[in-house]
Structures are given as structure tokens and as C-alpha cells.
Design goal:
Layout (H helix, E strand, L loop, with lengths): L1 H7 L7 H7 L1 H4 L1 H19 L3 H9 L5 H5 L1 H22 L5 H24 L1 E2 L11 E13 L2 E2 L3 E8 L2 E7 L11 E8 L3 E4 L8 E7 L5 E7 L3 H26 L1 H9 L88 E3 L13
Parallel strand pairs: 1-6
Antiparallel strand pairs: 2-3, 2-4, 2-9, 4-5, 5-6, 7-8, 7-10, 8-9
Length: 368
């Protein structure tokens, strides 16, 4: 169906951009495919020399199954390159490029989501249902120390995933142990209903402190050292937005009439649209290199099943008395590798930091 319409664009190239915009939701199938790719890689690696090799010879195929399974991933990147070439030459010709720009943004965002979900698919040991945690908003590698009951652990490398409903801390699997592909072992998590965030520390722009509140009032602190200020700021923005959403939900339950009155004044689809007050320089899209950092993301999300592409807002948090990262063992680690990420920002306070305004919940789950 899509291929047939794509072939028609050979005779009508002006319809190419609209084709990708119209089929953005359909192109989401590539995200699902990539989410399952780690499973397919495991199955193929088990039987590549036996069952799948016999099948290849019977069918007379020249390519191995691995070569065929990677083709959908390569295809989405080819679509992106095709649209970028169209955009370049349309600009040179002085043609209208508005729709082409939107199409390029769609095909930059889809591969980014694919990359994100392939990483999530390589997470091992998480007992919950990963698809029930909402959209993946951020993922990056941090140096993380945990502080509970006054005891501060040694900083360790962690791959951290920020979902709409959960923050997951995982340990990268050492390739020296015989794993050829990247993988992650679940170590800890924070439910968003338990989540809080301490204020930003100007003297260490790479430090981010998340907290988890227990039913007994105890607080566990996760002191996270990012590899760059841009990563820290992107996470700060997204966590702020999550906590603001939680707070709004609580306000809606407590005062539904007042909440509805306030929302009716909103100027777009129930979401208060703020003018982008900060420069896009230094801020980055969600988490993979497929997006051009030098360009602002599109202001519209054409697929409601995907995260919004609204540009990040700079959140200025007040300065605190002390910097927790200064006392973090191993905080001066060399920069860690990372992927790339985005969001909105609203400031909410809880104690000395930020919280969602919800009552304490059960302690975050942990796996030693």
C-alpha cells in the first residue's frame, strides 16, 4: 500500500512529502519492529548455523537471515536521506519546502524512536511490563550514587531510562563477558508517583539528583553525574514536566471545576503552549543521533502515539546551599558515552526540590 503510493511519486515528486506526513502512524510499525529486534537477534544466533542455514540453502538465497532482518532498519534511514536530498534541491530551486521540512522531521523522529526501543528491548531482569510504563522520554548513561539513611554508595555506571511512569536504572553488560551486542541488567527503579527532584546546582551543571519517597517518609537520593550539561538540562526539563503533569492531575481530582476553568483558557488542545524563550543551542532531541542537533524540532506531533516534538524550555532552578555531587565518590569520572534527547519545563517545589505533589508511596523496587 505504502510502496504503491511511493512509486507514484516518481511521476509526481511534489506529493512525496505529504505521503510521509500522512503515513506517520503507519511508519510507527518500524518502531515496533526494532523493539522486537533484540529477541529476533537472540533466536537467530541460536539457530543460524543449523535450521536457518538449511532453510537458506533449500530456498537458494544468497543472503543470511541476519542480512535480511537488518533491511527494514536500513530502509528507514534511506527514507530519511531521500527526503533530505529533496529538501536540499527544492531549496536550491526556490521551491516551497514547508511540507518537506515536516516530512524530514517525521523521518528523523522515527529512526530515533527505533534506536530507543532497541535499547529498551535489550534490558534484562525487569519483572514488570515495559510497555505499560508509557513513552520512553529519555535514556542516557550516568555515574550514579545512591544515598539511603545517610549512607552514600560508590558511584557506578548506569544506563538510566526515563519513562512516563517509571525511571529505570540498569547496569551495562560488559562485552568482555562474551556479549557481542549491547545489553543492560535491571538494578533499580523509581515510580513516578514516588519521584522528586532536588534543585539544580550551578557550580556543577552536570549533576542531577532524583529522589524516591517511601511510605514511611524515608527518602532515597540518586545522585546522577551526566557527561555534559546538555544531558543534565534535557533530563531536568523532562522530569519537571512529568512532575507538573502529576501535580495537575492531583489538582484536577481535588478541584475539578477550577481545573476545568483554567484548562478552558489554554490556547491549544488542553496544553498550555509557551513561546520558546530559550535557544535550541546546546539542547538536544530525545536520545539518538538521527536528529540534527543544529535544528529545532518541529512544533507539531503528527502522530499522537509518539511523544510531542515541542522544543525544550530552559528551566532556571534556584541555587542551593551545597552540591551533593561534590561529595559523590567518583563524581570526577571521565565523560560517559550517551545517546541524545528533549522536552518542556515547568518548575514545581517539594521540600528543597521538586515533587509531583502526590502522597508518599511504596518504596522503589530494587534488584541487587
Amino acid at each position: 500500500y505504502f510502496l504503491g503510493e511511493l512509486e507514484k511519486c516518481v511521476g509526481d515528486p511534489d506529493s512525496l512529502a505529504q505521503l510521509f506526513i500522512k503515513h506517520e502512524r503507519r511508519l510507527h510499525m518500524y518502531v515496533v519492529y526494532c523493539q522486537n529486534k533484540p529477541k529476533s537477534e537472540h533466536i537467530v544466533s541460536e539457530y543460524i548455523e543449523t535450521y536457518f542455514e538449511d532453510l537458506r540453502q533449500q530456498l537458494g538465497h544468497r543472503l543470511q537471515l541476519n542480512d535480511l532482518l537488518i533491511k527494514p532498519v536500513q530502509r528507514i534511514m534511506k527514507y530519511q536521506l531521500l527526503l533530505k536530498d529533496f529538501l536540499k534541491y527544492y531549496r536550491k530551486a526556490g521551491r516551497d519546502v514547508e511540507e518537506l521540512q515536516r516530512a524530514v522531521e517525521v523521518m528523523c523522529f522515527v529512526p530515533k524512536r527505533c534506536n530507543d526501543m532497541m535499547n529498551v528491548g535489550r534490558l534484562q531482569g525487569f519483572e514488570g511490563k515495559i510497555t505499560a510504563q508509557g513513552k520512553l522520554l529519555q535514556q542516557d548513561t550516568f555515574s550514579v550514587s545512591e544515598q539511603e539513611s545517610g549512607l552514600l554508595s560508590r558511584a557506578k555506571e548506569r544506563r538510566v531510562f526515563l519513562f512516563e511512569q517509571l525511571v529505570i536504572f540498569s547496569e551495562p553488560i560488559d562485552k568482555k563477558k562474551g556479549f557481542s551486542l549491547p545489553g543492560y541488567t535491571f538494578k533499580n527503579s523509581i515510580k513516578v508517583s514516588c519521584l522528586g527532584m532536588e534543585e539544580q546546582f550551578e557550580e556543577d551543571p552536570c549533576c542531577l539528583v532524583l529522589t524516591s519517597r517511601g511510605t514511611d517518609g524515608s527518602v532515597t537520593r540518586f545522585i546522577m553525574q551526566a557527561s555534559s550539561p546538555e544531558i543534565q538540562q534535557a533530563w531536568l526539563n523532562d522530569v519537571d514536566q512529568i512532575l507538573e503533569t502529576q501535580r495537575n492531575f492531583l489538582n484536577a481530582l481535588q478541584s475539578p471545576i477550577e481545573y476545568q476553568r483554567r484548562e478552558s483558557k489554554s490556547n491549544s488542545l488542553g496544553r498550555n503552549m509557551k513561546s520558546p524563550s530559550a535557544s535550541a543551542s546546546g539542547l538536544r532531541p530525545h536520545s539518538s543521533a538521527s536528529m540534527d542537533r543544529r535544528q529545532r524540532p518541529c512544533l507539531l506531533s503528527y502522530n499522537n502515539s509518539l511523544p510531542s516534538l515541542h522544543p525544550p524550555q530552559h528551566c532556571s532552578a534556584s541555587k542551593a546551599v551545597s552540591n551533593p555531587c561534590a561529595a559523590t565518590p567518583g563524581a570526577a569520572h571521565p565523560p560517559l558515552s550517551s545517546h541524545h534527547q528533549l522536552s518542556l519545563c515547568t518548575e514545581v517545589r517539594y521540600a528543597s526540590g521538586t515533587s509531583n505533589g502526590l502522597p508518599p508511596c511504596s518504596q522503589h523496587s530494587m534488584q541487587v
